[in-house]
Amino acid sequence: MRQTKSRFSRFARIASALGLTAVLGMGLAACAADTATPEPGETSSSGSLDGNGQTIVMFMPSTATIYQSDEAASIKEETAKLGFEVKIFENKTDQTEQDQQVQQFIATGEVPAAFIWWPSNSKAGINSSRLLSQIAPVFQVNQSVLPEGEEYITAYAGVRAFGIGESAGEMLKAAREEAIASGAELHSEEGNLIEITFPAGYQSGIDRHDGMVKATGDEPFNLLASEPTAAGFDSQAAFDIASQVIPKYLDEGVDFVFAQNLSMAAGVVTALEQNGLTPGKDVWVIAGNDAGDKTPLLNGKVYSAVIQSPVIEGKLIIQTVAKYLASGEVTDDVVNLELDAEEPELTADAPAKTTYMPNPPIRVADIDGFTFWGLTYEQLGSQ
Amino acid sequence: MSTQFDTSTVATASAPAPRSRRVAEFVITWSLPLLLLLTLIIATATTPGFLAFANLRGILINTAVIGIAAVGLTPVTLSGNLVSLAVTQQAMLAAVVFFPLLAVGVPLPLAILLVIVILAAVGVAQGVFVAVGLNPMITTLAAGAIIFGLATLVTGGRVVSAPAVDTRWLALSSPLGLPLPIYIFIGFTILTTLFIDRTVTGRKISLAGANRETARLSGVSFRSATIASFVVLGIGTAISGIVVAAQAGQATTLDLPTLTSNVIAAVLVGGTAIQGGFGSPLRSALGALMIAIFSQVMLLHDFSHGVRLAAVGALVVVMVSVLHVIRKKAV
């Protein structure tokens, strides 16, 4: 009797499981039928830049930093202007957390007009971009698209970290010319250079380094050291590593320091001064993008920085989405935008597969009267 | 050097042979100074430029911020409350509050005092919760999240600074060639060590951590000892944050992401027992110094960043494991 009951129980469990699977299968099939979505490349074109209340969903790092905060504000403003709704999911610059957010969003079954994807880690985030691309077209911003993830990204628009490195490299060469012209004696024929980079493995830092090396390739520097911060992109993180590295090379002589952003350059300046060096006189500090307090740039202790505007990047990515939804396609071009004083008129033609915003260098003398897309230097954000 | 001993296990374990115990006590007390000395000798012998004044100054500068916070954390650990997981957020809060105070015209000495009072109050708030029985790790983890959230809300993620007020002299003034933060670090270490060793409250903090029940029977309040220890941590993180602000010239809520782990590492390498009762602020200061020397020697030998991080991690594991085993044998 007990054996019969046991067999019946097992049969009942198997039958229940099969039944449940069948119901779930039918349910999923029904959902799939209801929410059948076109492939990213097959989105039907609306012909209009008007968003008609469609939703754009964005995944990005936390707005606890000014760059992300300004970019999120710019995105909200631009989406409102074009008639879209936007939902933003923030993470603490943690790819695992961002991946979970993607899974949770997919589970809701919502189908937006497009996704904007700002991965915390370009490589580790590829699978999430793949999953998102099966629902709606994915537009990547800020972090460059890696070759292995290209097929999941409809288009990229935003900063070109390599270009920031190139601009900084050009400014390194300009600083060297200026130093020599002013009678400074460099510690080697090329000039001794120390580089303080973003944390090891951060793609934007790698790109900036490569850009700087390429720009100075024809007239290279004597690169003494390229050291990453232990963690973080802030002034104190750069100060910590600079105050370790600079004493090591004091005897050899330090002529130039490249810090990958302006906040970090401020920490480098303090470390140099604590070691008895005067920035702008004994040593020249060149910054990457101009995030952070502008004081070191304004007082001349930092020779130059590179403009990376979150306001422009926010506008650009939304305009790219709008153009795609209007035209239904992207071109294979790679477009480097010019530094236009006025914002170009937005047209409903196909956006380029890759659009880079300009990253011009800036020195204190250039700030007054500077305009980019109708915005003054202060209005470009990240202040 | 302070030599409080863990009496909690003394009471329950059978005493080992006096000679082996004396040897173990000697090792526990002097292992860090001896290891520090050995490291210095090896570094001097193998590393060109190690004894250069600029290099030694660099090591001390690198020790200052972590060392001040580690010295501040030590009473919390000594009192039997493990560690705080909000060190980063407290130091960040100090820096983020410091600049706006200066920007609205508060004189520098008063701004420093206010930041210390605010962070001491933050310490009291956490100490009260821990004293009534909440887990210190969970309490401080939650406190860190609240501080970060509120600071981010108020600043909107913006970089805070006070360009009109000169604070950089705090980082750049160099009596006898050593920047002021180094003197602040040494001064805070001496004061905190004296507080723990020479004051009634300090001794109560150690006793509360050594054996809570014995302390209670002796009339020592675990609650007041806990609150006092968190106040010291608040003061330490306030000073640490002000030094960071002076060095960086600006602050954001995302600053100092690794401070908590670095400070805990310094306390543990210093040999303060994680379960409380044994240790001293001076030991934590030496622990921070030890890590800075170790890291600098590897940098001078051109070890890569990854190798340096891994080696410092290994140093922490070895020191904590060895001291734990010896301490067990000693009692």
Could you explain the architecture of this structure?
The complex is a heterodimer of chains A (383) and B (331). Chain A is an alpha/beta fold. Chain A folds into two domains: 43-159 and 309-380, Rossmann fold (3-Layer(aba) Sandwich); 162-306, Response regulator (Rossmann fold, 3-Layer(aba) Sandwich), CATH 3.40.50. Chain A contains ten helices and 15 strands. In chain A, strand 8, helix 8 (262-274) and strand 9 form a beta-alpha-beta unit. The longest helix of chain A has 33 residues, at 2-34. Chain A is elongated. By secondary structure, chain B is mostly helical. Chain B is globular and about 65 Å long. Chain B has a single domain (18-330), classed as ABC transporter involved in vitamin B12 uptake, BtuC. The chains are: A alpha/beta (383), B mainly alpha (331). The interface between A and B is large, with 43 and 41 residues.
Task: Specify the CATH architecture of the largest domain in chain A.
Answer: 3-Layer(aba) Sandwich
Largest pleated sheet of chain B: none
**What is the CATH architecture term of chain B?**
Orthogonal Bundle
CATH topology of the largest domain in chain A: Rossmann fold
Measured between the Cα atoms of the first and last residue of chain B, the distance is: 20 Å
| Largest sheet features of chain A | 7 strands, parallel
Low-confidence stretches of chain A: 1-6, 20-41
Tally of alpha and pi helices of chain B = 13
Please, how many domains of chain A?
Answer: 2
- Individual helix count of chain A: 10
The CATH homologous superfamily of the largest domain in chain A: Response regulator
Q: What overall geometry of chain B do the principal axes of the alpha carbons give?
A: globular
Q: For the record, what CATH class of chain B applies? A: Mainly Alpha
